[in-house]
Design a protein that fits this description.
The complex is a heterodimer.
Chain A: E1 2-6, E2 10-16, H1 18-25, H2 27-30, H3 38-44, H4 55-83, E3 88-90, E4 93-99, H5 103-121, H6 125-128, H7 139-161
Antiparallel strand pairs in A: 1-2, 2-4, 3-4
Helix pairs in contact in A: 3-5, 4-5, 5-7
Chain B: H1 10-16, E1 21-26, H2 33-44, H3 48-61, E2 63-69, H4 71-83, E3 88-92
Antiparallel strand pairs in B: 1-2, 1-3
Helix pairs in contact in B: 2-3
Classes of the chains: A alpha+beta, B alpha+beta.
């Protein structure tokens, strides 16, 4: 899988192995706002303060800020869903190109997906920064691999945008 | 009628000035370091070196104070940081 640019306005990934293409195609399912676990919801919508005596701030945040965040996450997901229609097979691999102006939405959804996977399985810093070869036999190992795949995609987009 | 401007003594100014708030970002093992630094540049307009310094502070010490000032603006910053899915909170400076 490699990152590429076409002109100034489009970026993409090519030579995507069919297995990885499936993982990319599965992004929207991971961040379906109607199917998030409570743990993931808590991670996506953290409290605005850790101080004890600010119940009013917390309730105002829930009432007035969270709906805007939900809409932001939802619209990023919608953009990615639309772009995924461009994930096409080329010979034995897949390729996708996206408008550079959609890169923010992709970064957001890739981040949502990584956070959701990590939150649901309680991944910690040690596991995520491990340099050991991935253990692709266990479910945790497969999830770690998936998190790292999305991290690779994020990193490519960040480097292009910076 | 003549008016006379009066200046409040420093001690009184202390009592009427709103206490500043800190915008804190907490460590998260999932967010990429490059992503966090990019967000700091975008949200606060920090130059790369300063964004990098705060990012490393978050990574190494668990948290970093990104900004201090009036509450409304601090809330807006935290809202933006939550939009990028960073773990950010508000805290009174005296806390």
């Amino acid at each position: 899988m490699e990152f590429f640019t076409t002109g100034k306005s489009r970026v993409g990934f090519r030579q995507i192995h069919p297995l990885l293409a499936e993982l990319v195609r599965g992004l929207p399912v991971l961040v379906d706002p109607d199917a998030l676990s409570e743990t993931v919801e808590q991670r996506f919508y953290p409290e605005p303060t850790r101080e004890r005596d600010h119940d009013q701030l917390r309730s105002d945040w829930k009432a007035f800020v969270e709906p805007g965040l939900q809409e932001h996450f939802r619209s990023s997901r919608d953009i990615v869903i639309a772009d995924l229609k461009n994930l096409i097979e080329k010979k034995d691999a897949f390729e996708i190109t996206i408008p550079l102006q959609h890169a923010d939405a992709w970064l957001n959804v890739l981040n949502q997906a990584r956070l959701a996977l990590a939150a649901d399985l309680g991944f910690d810093e040690e596991l995520l920064s491990s340099t050991e070869p991935p253990d692709l036999v266990s479910n945790r190992g497969l999830i770690a691999f998936r998190i790292n795949l999305y991290a690779f995609m994020q990193q490519c987009l960040i480097e292009q945008m910076e | 009628m003549a008016t006379k401007s009066t200046e409040l003594p420093a001690a009184e100014i202390e009592t009427v000035t709103a206490e500043p708030w800190n915008v804190i970002v907490h460590n998260d093992p999932v967010n990429l370091m490059s992503y966090v630094a990019m967000v700091f540049k975008r949200v606060f307009g920090y130059p790369p070196e300063r964004a990098q310094k705060h990012m490393l502070e978050v990574h190494e010490h668990g948290r970093s104070v990104l900004w201090t000032g009036e509450r409304e603006k601090a809330e807006l910053y935290v809202q933006q940081l939550h939009g990028y899915l960073l773990l950010a909170t508000l805290e009174r400076t005296g806390s």
